[in-house]
Predict the 3D structure of the following.
Amino acid sequence: MSEYSQSLLYLDGVTVSFDGFRALNNLSLVVARGEMRAIIGPNGAGKTTMMDVITGKTRPDKGDVLFDGSHDLTKLDEAAIAELGIGRKFQRPTVFDSHSVLDNIVLALEGPRGVFSSLFARLTGPQRDRIDEVLDTIRLTDRRDDLAGRLSHGQKQWLEIGMLLAQDPALLLVDEPAAGMTDAETAETAALLRRIAETHSVVVVEHDMTFVRDLDVRVTVLHEGSVLAEGSLDQVSADERVIEVYLGR
Amino acid sequence: MTRLSTRGLPLGLGRTGIAFLAILAAAAVLVPVLNLAVPPGSAWHVPTTWVVLLGKYLCYALLALSIDLVWGYCGILSLGHGAFFALGGYAMGMHLMREIGSRGVYGNPELPDFMVFLNWKELPWYWYGFDQFWFAALMALLVPGALAFVFGAFAFRSRVTGVYLSIITQAMTFALMLAFFRNDMGLGGNNGLTDFKDVLGIDLQKNATRCGLFVLSAAALAGGFLLCRAIVSSKLGKVLVAIRDAESRTRFIGYRVEHYKLFVFTVSAMMAGLAGALYVPQVGIINPGEFAPANSIEAVIWVAVGGRGTLVGAALGAVVVNLGKSWFTGALPELWLFALGGLFIGVTLFLPKGLLGLARSRAAKPVAAPPAAEPATVDVPDRRAAE
């Protein structure tokens, strides 16, 4: 059928203005089920605003935002969108500093989110296994009882990715996962995301071109709130307009 | 820090929690025994004035506990908790007024004295039911709970946080104070409710009654502590701390922050109401002054002094500051408010984790300094996640 129903995420003609400034300008974007997509673009291109719109933090002035073909994300709040299966990693790592690494994962772990179910919640065997698995994936098993606030910057980034894994959303929105990381960490993060993308749909926003190359996926270039080019990294980096925007000619 | 020592104990009580409950239990036994069984001449005798004073402090400690639950664990800095305390107190006061019956100055079996004085002919509808103790006790919990629920539902849904929330809680208690000052409210106006005779047929002036109220207050404080412990050590408690530290992050992993805040705010208000209901029979009066904004602020200072986010510290702070207040208002009455203000500034600057934090870091010093996981300032409950 049409891409409308096959797509996991469907943005059409989305416009967001802040005090007359158009952060998103008639933006259209389709992410297929199981796809990993990289979004690049200069500062102010609207990458973070796009994530805000998808996760319900910002309401668009115009346009459609559909998830899984039928859910209108412009009508839902953050919690409802998270429950539908959209997880988000922030640009600056935001973990719960005064909780242990383990508790950070426990809080993110997929499951009921209601007040009373939390009051009486007990971890089950399979949940413990799942937590161990996540800790292992993000290589924080030996730090599980340490406070998250004591982790290094790179470890916090990984913990946040681990929280996304525990949440097990259908779609992961990852904002600059390699920011502030060493080259080795960046390469490892790319490998981790590729592994995650085997079972999830992922949208990655990134500045770092080496990192995007490591991901080896379809790239969308944003500029002034709309899509400038789309294709493989080689294709878009050969595009005249992209070169112009990036080199600022 | 306490992680290792608390493992295996029920509710993660920890050594501090066990010690706290043990001291409460000991006080609940010793104070009445030393008051009732030891003759007044003995050095071991606890005078009745002390029983009343300590009982009052225990009620304050329960109020402090309720504030710590919302402020220390969820970052909601309520500067209006005195209102919930006072409402609980009024509910109990209304019952005690009805208990007076025809023994009032005007001897009216139905109407309290102030209504006779105002020439009222019949009891207002909202006084019905308060002749029953169980009804008054229930209302002492439900009225503050309902107010907190409605107030919180609006405030948290609109995402009012931080200083703005603190200001509207102040406005709430101030508005209630003005309302309760009016004679038309039918709650004694300016003078409030007083001249209580007895409760459940027991004379309130008797030493045994005062000791009984002291024991009840200690039991309520212990119960309140266990309830708070159960809440903060559950997964719900972890969500509360997550909200305190990174509210929008908590939303993005799917928690309805406003529901959690509403739950904990309502539970806290009911605890404050219970504290007020136990306070009134001991001090023998409730008047609109209890709604004064300064009272609520003072209660927040108790928590800060004792140690925010520790529960035991909040109770400790309430007792210590009030002991100081009792001494100060006797010795240097005009300086008390300055001392209180100075105490608050001093604690914020030098004891970010309060007295309990000081004691804990002293105990833990040989091992390692505690991490500065929690910023100390009081105006941070609205720290948001990176946006």
About this structure: Residues 324 and 336 of chain B are 9 Å apart (CA to CA).
